[in-house]
Each structure stands twice: as C-alpha cells, then as structure tokens.
C-alpha cells in the first residue's frame, strides 16, 4: 500500500506535467526573459582578433529576428533531428529549428508540429569549369570541401566515397576550391546559385544536380497553439516581404568578400 507521502508526490508530478503541457513555449520564454531555441549549429563565441565568418545556415539569423520580435535574450542549445521532438516536448527548448524532408521522423511525430520557415535547399557541388567530374559518383576518392555546421558533413563521404575536408565556414571551403586544395565544394544550392552569378566565380561554375532537398522548419509541441500561430505568422512575414531576398544577397556578398580578402595566391590553373 502506498504511503500518503508517495501518493502526494505522484499527484504533484502529475499536476506539474499537466501544467507544463498547457504552457506555451512563447509564454514560457517571455516569463524567463530568454527564448531557448535549439539549432544544429549554434555559432561559436567570437574570439577577439578572429576573422569574421558568415555561417552556412540561416538558422542564427532567424533566431535573432525572433528574439528581436519578442524582445528577448537568446539561448541556443545544440540539437539535431533525432532529439528535436524531445527537446520541445520536455520543455527544455521553446522551439527547435531543424532541416527535414518528407520522410523525416519529425513529420510523423504526432506530438510536434513542423512549421516551414520559407527556406529550403539541397546539396550542390561546384567545381572548376574545366573539371573532369561529371556526376556525384565521380567524387569517389576526390577531395570535397564543406563547412562546419553544414547539413552535408559526413554524408558526401558516406554516400559517394569522397574525402571530406571540413572547413570553419563557407568562405574557407570556397577559398580552398579556388586555390586547388579541393576538387569540389558542397553547400546549399539556394546560396550557391546566387554566388555563381558573380563574374569572379565564372571559372568555378561547373555544378552537379542538386541532391537531398530539405526544408528548414520550426518544431514546437502540437498542443502549443499560441507558439504555432506566432511562428506561422513570423514565417509568413518573412516570405511576403524582402527578408529572404535580402538574406541571400547579404550571404553572397559577405562570403564573396571574405574569400576575396583571404585569397593571397592566384586561382588554380
């Protein structure tokens, strides 16, 4: 027979769980003064004297914009698709950003909702225009540059047998391509398509068909109607306005400039 204390403890835990389930992630964030948003690659803390580098993913920009909208500080724990649902269900995160495809387990989890942010991309490989690489399969044994925090790290080696060279950021990866330190660079096609429009990238405009197309989504609890409504409106605002156009333009200009500043030897010939 249970003691009175154990019964009371059980009741208390049940009440706390019920209260949590009824909470909105947005409301919880406002109460604590910090929006806890999980992402696959939280930006490393800036080190004085280090060169500025534009990150691969727009995740940090989206979370910064949400923080400004809500007038909250930010907490950005590292998460991934495998634990995204658990982070929001447990209340450890108010929202999680994740890249998903139609077959992702997150899409089948009835306890969470995936809200498209308006950003989608696939893996694009770019190379010198005179490359002998004509298919993804021909990357086997070749050196492919990628950047930390990119969605394709580990996947190019696993799927095609390439030798991956993971760099700090897209600028470092693309610089390595220009000077001949790698045979190809793989990044989001959404960003690379705009980069290749610049005249200084004409010699590196060979590309392979886009692979592994994914959509960047916000993941929140399915019973959190307030957060769902808020994030859907934020995403709609980004899509309806010039947010994504300006973000891509800024990404391309910044990365191209970072490459330009650091390239102190000629392009490979």
Task: Describe this entry's structure for a reader.
- It is a single chain.
- This protein is an alpha/beta fold and 269 residues long.
- It has two domains: 23-119 and 214-256, D-Maltodextrin-Binding Protein, domain 2 (3-Layer(aba) Sandwich), CATH 3.40.190; 121-213, D-Maltodextrin-Binding Protein, domain 2 (3-Layer(aba) Sandwich), CATH 3.40.190.
- Helix content is 40%, strand content 22%.
- The chain is built from ten helices and nine strands.
- The chain has helices spanning 4-22, 25-32, 59-70, 84-90, 105-108, 155-160, 170-178, 189-195, 225-240, 243-262; strands at residues 34-38, 73-75, 95-100, 112-127, 143-147, 163-167, 184-188, 206-207, 211-221.
- Strands 1, 2, 3, 4, 5, 6, 7, 8 and 9 form a nine-stranded mixed β-sheet that branches.
- Strand 1 (34-38), helix 3 (59-70) and strand 2 form a beta-alpha-beta unit.
- The longest helix has 20 residues, at 243-262.
- The relative contact order is 0.17.
- The model is unreliable at 1-22 (pLDDT under 50).
Which helices and strands, and how do they pair?
Blueprint (H helix, E strand, L loop, with lengths): L3 H19 L2 H8 L1 E5 L20 H12 L2 E3 L8 H7 L4 E6 L4 H4 L3 E16 L15 E5 L7 H6 L2 E5 L2 H9 L5 E5 H7 L10 E2 L3 E11 L3 H16 L2 H20 L7
Helix pairs in contact: 7-10, 8-10
Instruction: Give the second-level CATH assignment, the architecture of the largest domain.
Output: 3-Layer(aba) Sandwich
- Supply the helix-strand structural class: alpha/beta
> How would a crystallographer describe the biggest sheet?
9 strands, mixed
Computed over alpha carbons, the radius of gyration is: 22 Å
N→C terminal distance: 82 Å
Specify the helix fraction band.
Answer: 40-55%
List the helices and strands in order.
HHEHEHEHEEHEHEHEEHH
- The whole-number mean of residue pLDDT values reads 89
Classified by CATH, the class of the largest domain is: Alpha Beta
Quaternary organization: single chain
Count the DSSP helices: 10
CATH topology of the largest domain: D-Maltodextrin-Binding Protein, domain 2
Q: Poorly predicted ranges (pLDDT <50, ≥5 residues)?
A: 1-22
